[in-house]
UniProtKB/TrEMBL annotation:
Gene3D superfamilies named among the record's database cross-references: 2,3-Dihydroxybiphenyl 1,2-Dioxygenase, domain 1
PROSITE patterns referenced in this protein's UniProt entry, alphabetically: VOC
Highest classification ranks of the organism: Bacteria, Bacillati, Bacillota, Bacilli, Bacillales
Protein name as it appears in the record: Catechol 2,3-dioxygenase
Superkingdom, taxonomy of origin: Bacteria
Keyword terms of this UniProt record: Dioxygenase, Oxidoreductase
Molecular function GO labels: catechol 2,3-dioxygenase activity
A Pfam family matched in the record: Glyoxalase
Enzyme type, top EC level: oxidoreductase
InterPro entries: Glyas_Bleomycin-R_OHBP_Dase, Glyas_Fos-R_dOase_dom, VOC_core
Protein species of origin: Gracilibacillus halotolerans
Domain VOC positions: 10-126, 168-282
E.C. no: 1.13.11.2
Amino acid sequence: MSFHQKPTMYVSSVHLHVMDIKRSLTFYQEVLGLKVLKELDKMVHFTADGTNTLLVIEQPEGVNPKQGRTTGLYHFAILLPERSDLATFIKHIVPLGVELGASDHQVSEAIYFSDPDGNGIEVYRDREPAEWNWDNDQVEMTVDPLDAEDLLAAAKNEEWNGIPEDTVMGHIHLHVAHLPEVEEFYTKGLGFEVVTRYGNQAIFISDAKYHHHIALNTWNGVGAPTPASNSVGLKHYTITLPNEPQRNEVIERLKQIGAKIEEENGHYFTQDPSDNRIKLEI
């Protein structure tokens, strides 16, 4: 998956707040099939390959339930290596009674659901890039019905044995307050390109001509407020950059457009104009 490894700039992990760490630990192991990499008192790191963190869940002190109509997480998206992996995952999750949505986006096939706290999750597989349709610099994406029968045929007789080792964080989709400001932040500051526009309500952005590493929308309302720092939802997500010189360049560009940069124990953080916090790693 060259769109999710260096030298491409990509979303590598997501850190969430949850209400009940034990309940969420069970969900992410048994429903999503992630493996525990590290477990602390109120925090768990999950992995697919046994080495790299894909997802972190944390129960903060005085945690509040997920707030509606705010900025923050719409969903994070787990990208499976093969179509057969998505088919076997569907065979696994349907009997569990999880409420599902599904779409064929032309560039990908996806299912959607939420964790016990309402944090949105997408699990998907990509079609080959040669099958994606581009109109100049804009990739064509749709919200067509998923052909579940055809997809499930790809499972053959395989059984679900948890998330495959080659699984990655495919993208993240965020609620924002104002699109023009966040577009400037993500393009002029971070260096992503807009690859799809949905009127004045959403933009999809990427590096290296992926269909999207990040999506941004105002569907919770223009001017939507920032959720409380201890509420369920996104704490931060991580963007991995190719090397230290490029990270330094990104930090300088962000400073030039007025974005705040914080250093914590050798790690660099910033936040977009809608207060979605981002860790900048190499």
